[in-house]
Amino acid sequence: AQSVTQLDSQVPVFEEAPVELRCNYSSSVSVYLFWYVQYPNQGLQLLLKYLSGSTLVKGINGFEAEFNKSQTSFHLRKPSVHISDTAEYFCAVRDTNAGKSTFGDGTTLTVKP
Amino acid sequence: ETGVTQTPRHLVMGMTNKKSLKCEQHLGHNAMYWYKQSAKKPLELMFVYNFKEQTENNSVPSRFSPECPNSSHLFLHLHTLQPEDSALYLCASSQVQGERGEQFFGPGTRLTVL
How far is A77 from chain B (nearest CA, A)? Predict the structure, then answer.
């Protein structure tokens, strides 16, 4: 079994400030890790993914995430946010064997001017 | 058309109606998924099809009936729904279930059951 916990349901931040969205997971097997973004009235779009190799992963729109195996975390960061980053962000894990994906509850990022 | 498309984008139906949601992917993928996204609830996986065969049904009520005639098309047939079924229904596809790739999502169908 696997689970995903997004530690903050809402993150308000001012424009140009840095932001970190936290994600912890638990799994008895190896996993792949993903971050998705959902803008209003749209589906989910992949931001970045960790499959193997370097633990620091860079994605689209200036986002990056770091896989920390010992802490079972995959936190998402951006050094300077824009108004347009306002959206819902989902962390997801996928079992490398069975391919079953589990999503976190989501974090609403609100960027204020 | 590119990516994953869903029709209709919005649907309002009564509890006695029968309607269908359609999903089409233009990515050459072999796995397709239905998710339900309700307000204040996590994303719920409903069904998975891999090479047109249903591989997962997460205890979804029988008033939801999926159909996958080929790897590019996925339907969700709806009948005698309840108001609590109102939600955003998302379709997704991926290369093959279990592969390393991510899922690609459609824009969703916003369903309201009166």
Answer: 20
